[in-house]
Amino acid sequence: MKEEKFKISKRLKSFTYAFNGLKILIKEEHNARIHVLATVCVVILGILLKITILEWIAVIFAIGLVISSEIFNSAIENIADYLTKEKREEIKRIKDLAAAGVLICAIAALIIGLLIFIPKIIEICNSN
Ligand SMILES: Nc1ncnc2c1ncn2[C@@H]1O[C@H](COP(=O)(O)OP(=O)(O)OP(=O)(O)O)[C@@H](O)[C@H]1O
């Protein structure tokens, strides 16, 4: 493979490609909009319930995990649709596996959220 020279301008351009990917995600992927909405709700809840730094780390990690898994899932779906629009058992397997990846991340994020927020909500209910 040909060695390329390191160029700051080229590295910065990579960021613009990545931001373009985010634009595509928000514009075209409806599940991603749900994740963004869930993220906003979780961040507001975190601020209101004054979660600790360690809890913020877990929450931010969970948010990043779910959104990035959704992005990889969308990329895989796009490749699959580019390969063929026909109904194929192989495409079904590929898309179902990618969707399973998102599901696992979403379940892990949900458990993290419940572990952090439920005790705080119970505490508030008991103190009233
Ligand atoms: N070409 C295909 N051949 C066979 N099964 C397919 C094909 N395309 C989609 N499927 C099946 O339909 C499911 C949903 O696929 P689709 O591409 O609509 O994704 P989605 O999860 O609905 O994503 P989005 O809502 O972002 O479009 C897949 O998981 C797969 O089981």
UniProtKB/TrEMBL annotation:
Its main location: membrane. A divalent metal cation binds at residues 29, 77. GO terms for biological process: phospholipid biosynthetic process. It is found in: Cell membrane. It is a multi-pass membrane protein. Pfam families: DAGK_prokar (PF01219). GO terms for molecular function: ATP binding; ATP-dependent diacylglycerol kinase activity; metal ion binding. One of its GO terms (cellular component) is plasma membrane. Substrate binds at residue 70. The active site is at residue 70. Keywords: ATP-binding, Cell membrane, Kinase, Lipid biosynthesis, Lipid metabolism, Magnesium, Membrane, Metal-binding, Nucleotide-binding, Phospholipid biosynthesis, Phospholipid metabolism, Transferase, Transmembrane, Transmembrane helix. ATP binds at residues 17, 29, 77, 95-96. It comes from the Bacteria. Its cofactor is Mg(2+). Mn(2+), Zn(2+), Cd(2+) and Co(2+) support activity to lesser extents. The chain crosses the membrane at residues 32-51, 57-76, 97-118. Its EC number is 2.7.1.107. PANTHER family: DIACYLGLYCEROL KINASE (PTHR34299). Belongs to the bacterial diacylglycerol kinase family. This is Diacylglycerol kinase. It comes from Flammeovirga yaeyamensis.
